[in-house]
């Protein structure tokens, strides 16, 4: 019996990448079973390549996605003809001023974990593992000198009809489970990043991931009609102590500060929306001009003025567990870390 993974691109689902926003876009969709993953790594993941094998037994190599640094390790997926990728795990964080993928592990349906490669211990964790009924059939992301970001393409498994061929003894029987839409896939992501939305200027920041967000303070620059800064109070998971982020942006003379308090249990943040546009007081750079916060119980805002391009986080079932973005004199961009239910 052949491999149960379908490589039909029509039914594939793209799960957005984890990591930074630098580098060039890349994607590689498997046309046949993956046999090897080549990873160059050191303090971070420098690059990644994939080798598949077609029905004629020919090895097909992907391009190298990333730079030339680091030492090379190889993942060989060949325990059985039915072994395939079902998950990736890792961390991303700041390295030489850029957000990049710092460590990677790969998980197969044979209950095997390959890795970690790179440097574990710091950075924001991410994890995507399909429990049953699907497989990873490609990857995508951003890369330049390093692997800046990585995401996956997912497809459901196909099971031959019983009257077509009798199953051989000891062959795995896979129960077919439909992956109806992206929402079903997202249930296994802890956490997932979205954004940032806004401008490309300013210093990048990432608060990380926490169990609870207790308060958000929004600072409006009244003379500029823009959001000048944001600051967030988080709760640590282990000891339940409070932690304040840095002030992302600057406080200005004529300002208005709004405090949004939630308990994080009965009420929690689920999404944001707003507007961004160039601001003369910020050197003509795109700046967050208005922002609104949504919780499972209601809406806070809008704060600021509705000017420019609209943005919004997804309406998926989950909660915000952290923020990231760019800032300088003002809040230039903002994104969220999500934990899906």
TrEMBL record:
<dbReference type="GO" id="GO:0030246">
    <property type="term" value="F:carbohydrate binding"/>
</dbReference>
<dbReference type="InterPro" id="IPR001229">
    <property type="entry name" value="Jacalin-like_lectin_dom"/>
</dbReference>
<feature type="domain" description="Jacalin-type lectin">
    <location>
        <begin position="191"/>
        <end position="340"/>
    </location>
</feature>
<feature type="domain" description="Jacalin-type lectin">
    <location>
        <begin position="12"/>
        <end position="156"/>
    </location>
</feature>
<protein>
    <recommendedName>
        <fullName>Jacalin-type lectin domain-containing protein</fullName>
    </recommendedName>
</protein>
<comment type="similarity">
    <text>Belongs to the jacalin lectin family.</text>
</comment>
<dbReference type="InterPro" id="IPR033734">
    <property type="entry name" value="Jacalin-like_lectin_dom_plant"/>
</dbReference>
<dbReference type="Pfam" id="PF01419">
    <property type="entry name" value="Jacalin"/>
</dbReference>
<keyword id="KW-0430">Lectin</keyword>
<dbReference type="InterPro" id="IPR036404">
    <property type="entry name" value="Jacalin-like_lectin_dom_sf"/>
</dbReference>
